[in-house]
Amino acid sequence: MSQVLGLVSVVVRDYDEALSFYVGVLDFDLVEDTPIPEQSKRWVVVRPPGAHFGGILLARAANEEQASRVGNQTGGRVFLFLYTSFGRFAEASDAASQAHDSPSLASRAACMRR
Fold first, then answer.
1. Is 93 in the same domain as 38?
2. Which of 10, 61, 67, 95 sits 20 to 30 Å CA-CA off 75?
3. Which CA distances in Å does 40 have to 15, 57, 70, 88?
4. Is residue 93 very low, low, confident or very high in pLDDT (cuts 50, 70, 90)?
5. In the prediction, which pLDDT does 74 show?
């Protein structure tokens, strides 16, 4: 029996902030954004362009403990390996780095080649 990973949940501070990063910077596709008013939340799913299944469920932190994990959900380890054209990914990484004032992927790659 074949199995496929459906969704991976990522805790975010704010839905729209997360969408501007995943969709606006990384160019992911917005698969679903459905309000769930009775729970004061949304079901927000994004996935890399060209992907036909799976994705990332953007889950807004519901309490202080969850909010403390935003940006460090894997204890400092790598969270996601995205297979794509390096040029396109490097451009997106550079834009994200500028937005968050951190080293770009291109500069980190240059350091690794030294």
1. no
2. 95
3. 12, 16, 19, 36
4. low
5. 86
Question: What does the block give as tokens for 85?
Answer: 């054209």
What's residue 106's pLDDT? Answer: 47
Residue 19 pLDDT greater than 70, yes or no: yes
Which amino acid belongs to residue 69? R
Helix and strand counts by DSSP (H, E) for the chain: 4, 4
Backbone angles phi, psi at 47, to 5 degrees: -155, 155
Residue with tokens 């909010």, as numbered in its chain: 67
SS3 content of the chain, % helix, strand, coil (to 5): 35, 20, 40
The region, left, alpha or beta by phi > 0 then psi within -120 to 50, assigned to residue 71 is: left
pLDDT attached to residue 35: 97
Claim to verify: residue 28 and residue 56 sit in the same structural domain: yes
Which two structure tokens, joined as six digits, stand for 27? 């160019």
Domain with 110 in it: 84-114
Taking only the tens place, the pLDDT of each residue in 55-76 is: 999 999 999 999 999 988 888 8
